[in-house]
Amino acid sequence: MKTPKIIMVVEDETDLRELIGFNLEREGYTCRQAADGDEALAQMAREIPHLVILDRMLPNTSGDEVLAQLRRDQKTAAIPVLMLTAKADESDELVGFAMGVDDYVTKPFSMKALIARVAALLRRSREGVSHEAKALLSSGPVTLDPERHSVRVSGAAITLTATEFRLLQAMMSADGRLRSREQLIDAALGVDVAVVDRTIDVHIAALRKKLGSAATWIRTVRGAGYLWRAPDQGDD
Q1: What's the rounded Cα separation, in Å, for the pair 234 and 236?
Q2: For labelling alongside 169, which of 3, 207, 220, 226 has CA 20 to 30 A away?
Q3: Residue 140 in 3-state DSSP?
């Protein structure tokens, strides 16, 4: 018998939080609940969940700050985070992805759709270490180990979000071939996630920042997509 996945729901609206929790548990998940950011961080310090559903507008410590703290801590940096927000503007969505969100759902939303997004995020996190995806990737100064979910640049470990990790893995495993934005969205976010193309650009920018001196290995092919190639090699 499989151990149920633990989902942390951080939402200050009691009715909505309890409704999400009820539906998650009906699907077989174990649900933890927090009404504000401080309570959520305290709970996650004691027990690390498999996924976090995080309201952006929270009392005391905001959802943005909770996310930032999760991403700064190596123990929680790779946890998939699905952010809930009443802000539906594209710019708000891009800001969320830039901060390290893995998926973004605007209120009001369908509970069925939310549960499907949770399942998709968890499935993608499992797929990251299955079959051929287990292969250790080493190219230039970067080594990516899918089984340990670790990335090293010139021997030094760096911390990536789950989405950034899958994005880097997709480019490195392409063996120098171009990957379009659509292909990278499918690989990093999933075929069932509808986002704008600029979402990948935001993730690439964040990934380049974390890669430091190795950032130049990510090559931009204007109007086409991205590829992973040594800086001294020409583009296609």
Answers
A1: 7
A2: 3
A3: coil
pLDDT at 88: 61
DSSP state, 59?
Answer: S
pTM of the shown model:
0.65
**Same domain, residue pair 109 and 179:** no
Do 29 and 119 share a domain, yes or no?
A: yes
Look at residues 127, 151, 184 and tell me which one is the last residue of a structural domain.
Answer: 127
Contacts of 234 (CB under 8 A, 6+ apart): none
Instruction: Provide the number of structural domains found in the chain.
Output: 2
Q: Is 180 exposed, middle or buried (0-12, 13-18, 19+ CB in 10 A)?
A: middle
- Last residue within a domain, chosen from 127, 143, 175: 127
**Cis amide leading into 108 (omega within 30):** yes
Same domain, 108 and 150: no
Are 111 and 203 within one domain?
A: no
- Tell me the β-bridge partners of 180: 225
* Closest alpha carbon to 157 in 147, 148, 170: 148
What the block records as the tokens of 167 is 């994005």
Q: What is the pLDDT of residue 32?
A: 97
Nearest by Cα to 81 from 112, 44, 42, 130: 44
With beta carbons less than 8 A apart as the criterion, state whether 76 and 66 touch: no
Residue 170's DSSP bridge partners are none
Are 113 and 162 members of one domain? no
What's the confidence (pLDDT) of residue 197?
A: 62
Report, as ranges of residue numbers, the positions in the chain whose pLDDT lies below 50: 128-132, 235-236
Question: Do 78 and 149 lie in a common domain?
Answer: no
